[in-house]
Design a protein that fits this description.
Layout (H helix, E strand, L loop, with lengths): L7 H4 L1 H21 L6 H28 L7 H30 L13 H74 L3 H20 L4 E3 H19 L3 E7 L7 E3 L4 H11 L7 E10 L2 E8 L3 H5 L5 H14 L4 E6 L5 E8 L9
Parallel strand pairs: 2-4
Antiparallel strand pairs: 1-3, 4-5, 5-7, 6-7
Length: 361
């Protein structure tokens, strides 16, 4: 059981148990030092009843501490309230000890119990009770402060999660119309040249949008992401026909990875648009997925004109991917764009490796 969910009175039991052991040790060892033998039973009885009766009335300490906040600006009022609480506590404690010991001592074989003159007993016990009250109050204040800090931390974590989710959803809503605009623009470019190809592109686009718009998740298994991206490439293949070649290579260790949904689409779109700039008529795109320790690494490489021919490709799509990676992984992911070794451009994503929960779609 989480200790933070236990009633505060229960959490104070170890403190009072420590007081009992300490008080008993002090009184019994004092007896031994004074050569008083046979006092173990009475000392155990006295200190046990003292702690037990204190626990009965400790809710007074808790209640006063909860009702009275100790603030610098209002400390006289708080001090007065605690003084009243301490007086009430010691009066009740001493009275309960006198009654319980008188009733229980004969029952446990100790005979009649003599508590002495109560006129002096009350101030005598008050000297100890005030210290106990102060320590208990300090502990109550400390626990209350820790609980407030914990609740504030939980609230902050929940707020950050909600903000991250809202950010991701906003980025997704930005990405979908951006892609749709580009796809319709591509269809319009071939509509008057080849109606059949335009019709095929519309059919594939419809299937792609049906899958994309039906999903409300931010991360999906790698296989699902690749299936969606193949739908997108079907749209582009209908336009480019044999000018587009696409290949995917996934290391066995990375097959179970989960990835941000639609994270590859802007990269593929960039590769096609910028890689085929100028007089370029064909392009080959390769997606490599690997796992490096606890990191998923996805590279999208093309054999197009490269950065020098197309400039730094950090338009809307790339900016969207970078923002989503930051929102999902809070600085634990990266995106880099470099010239590929064999020509063209290579975009590499790195983010923490994770697998889909069992039973996840």
């Amino acid at each position: 059981m989480d200790k933070r969910r236990l009633p505060l009175v229960v959490r104070l039991i170890p403190l009072f148990a420590l007081v009992w052991v300490s008080a008993f040790s002090y009184r019994y060892l004092d007896d031994l030092a004074r050569h008083r033998s046979g006092t173990m039973s009475i000392r155990l009885f006295e200190e046990l009843t003292g702690v037990a009766t204190a626990l009965v009335i400790v809710p007074i300490v808790v209640e006063v501490s909860r009702r009275v906040r100790w603030a610098r600006a209002d400390w006289p009022r708080a001090a007065l309230a605690h003084l009243g609480g301490a007086v009430l506590y010691t009066v009740l404690h001493t009275t309960l000890m006198a009654l319980s010991r008188a009733a229980l001592a004969p029952l446990v074989g100790l005979g009649p119990y003599d508590y002495g003159n109560m006129l002096w007993r009350y101030p005598m016990e008050a000297s100890n009770d005030f210290v106990t009250y102060a320590v208990a109050c300090a502990l109550v204040y400390y626990i209350a402060r820790e609980e407030r800090a914990r609740k504030a931390e939980v609230a902050a974590v929940e707020l950050r999660a909600q903000l991250a989710q809202a950010t991701l959803e906003n980025l997704r809503l930005q990405l979908q119309p951006h892609f749709l605009f580009n796809a319709l623009n591509a269809i319009s470019s071939v509509m008057y040249e080849d109606v059949g190809r335009a019709d095929a592109m519309l059919a594939r686009l419809s299937e792609f949008l049906r899958v994309v718009l039906a999903s409300d998740v931010q991360q999906v298994p790698l296989a699902d992401e690749l299936d969606v991206e193949r739908m997108y490439l079907d749209v582009m293949t209908a336009r480019l026909e044999h000018a587009l070649r696409f290949d995917v290579r996934v290391e066995p260790a990375a097959r179970e990875a989960v990835v941000p949904f639609l994270v590859l689409q802007p990269l593929l779109e960039n590769a096609i648009r910028h890689g085929m700039a100028g007089e370029r008529e064909r392009i080959a795109i390769t997606v490599d997925v690997a796992r490096e320790l606890d990191t998923t690494v996805i590279s999208v490489a093309d054999d197009g004109v490269g950065l020098r021919g197309g400039g730094l490709r950090r338009g809307h799509g790339i900016a969207n991917v970078e923002s989503r990676l930051h929102a999902l992984y809070d600085g634990g992911a990266s995106l880099s764009i470099v010239d590929a070794a064999a020509g063209g451009t290579c975009v590499t994503l790195r983010f923490p490796f994770a697998v889909a929960p069992a039973g996840a779609a």
